[in-house]
Amino acid sequence: MKYINAKNVLPDEIIKIIQEYVNGEYLYIPIKNGEEKSWGEKSGARESLKRRNAEIYSRYNNGATVLDLAEEYYLSDKSIRRIIGAEKKLYEKTLKNKKID
Q: Can you tell which superkingdom this protein's organism belongs to (predicted)?
């Protein structure tokens, strides 16, 4: 998030009203309800982690060990096991939904 000078985006009348309450201080204006973004949406971090986790699950299914994956991805073996479990559930849910269709 970057700061924007109010003079560049707000009319003088609004600036004068705001100055009555907050004169020269920083003011955070929240996003409108319903327009919030989930964590990682804007930066792409969420999508990157989804790809990484799918890759971990695929490599595990192709014979990579939990310890090898933990070392390669700089994660604990517990984290790798959690990722594998979550990806397995997601995979099974996808299969189940395809059978219903």
A: Bacteria
